[in-house]
Amino acid sequence: MLKSELKDEVVCENFLNHIANNIAYTGPFAVITAYCVYTIRKKDKNDEFAEGDDELYRYLLTAICPVNTSSDGFVFDSFNNEITKKLNTELIISKAPSDGFLYPVFSNRSSDINHVMYYAKSASKPNTSIVEDVLGCSFIMSADSEKSSFQSILKTVVGDDLDYMVIKTVNEKLQEVAEESKDDTDNAVIDNTKLKGILTDIGVPQERVEMTDPVFEKVCGNTPLTVSNLIEKKTVLTSPGITVNIKPDAADKVRTSVVDGRRCLLIDIDDPTIEINGLPVTLN
Question: 247: buried, middle or exposed (CB in 10 Å: 19+, 13-18, 0-12)?
């Protein structure tokens, strides 16, 4: 399809039949595929656009959209002077795509024919039949499942030593791994060995660190986790009746402590003036 630029009708029909025969989908759907071209401008050593050295990124973008019939209703028939029921049988594409995929992937400012990007409207509810039966790839875990699995591993391995500082520092270590791998073609991943290194670096007791291998294998098998799916963009502290959202640049201003025998959450405030419900309040 990519080589023919969607001009080969037989190839296109086989493609549509392949989707129709392999997808698991509730209700009717429409398949919209577009052939696109993007010019990749190349730069020379002086960071200037080089003439005649451009690359063409050719790709296919497919959207799978739910369709439905418009609502039935009553209309006035002026010819017969009566109200009749109108039946609408036309299928209408009335919603955004529920699924889609892009091939080939655009990576490192070039075409990557070894990867296909899959899109799901709901990250927690991917259509595995598209990934496995239509695209022929192996579905491992969704982003939410990876995060849930990682949290389960941390809770089991670290145990009672799991506190605010451990969670905060692990998240910072994951951000470092992602930053170090930002120029790599493949997504950064973390396995049991890398996790053991992180836990050791942040001071988790060695007897706890040694639990990582069996716990990781039980939860994830031999499948590493995608680092970008594990990183928290903000820290959310919850307790009955209380929720505190902390942005990354303010994470160091929060700590937990025991004051006069009571467990407390302490927040350092550099400016004595804060706002509560939009109103300025001065702390003495």
Answer: exposed
pLDDT tens string, the chain, 284 residues long: the values are 999 999 999 999 999 999 999 999 988 899 999 999 998 877 777 777 767 667 889 999 999 998 886 666 787 888 888 888 776 667 777 778 999 999 999 887 788 898 899 999 887 788 989 999 999 998 877 788 889 999 999 999 998 888 888 898 999 999 998 888 877 767 788 999 999 999 999 999 999 999 999 999 999 888 899 898 898 888 888 888 888 888 878 888 888 888 888 888 888 887 777 887 788 887 76
CA dist., res. 170 & res. 199, Å (int): 8
Torsion-angle region of residue 197: left (phi > 0), alpha (psi -120 to 50) or beta?
alpha
Contact yes or no for 171/129 (Cβ under 8 A): no
Instruction: Pull the structure tokens for residue 96.
Output: 């955004």
CA-to-CA distance for 24 and 21, rounded, in angstroms?
9
Supply 57's token pair: 């990124």
Cβ contact 138:222 at 8 Å:
no
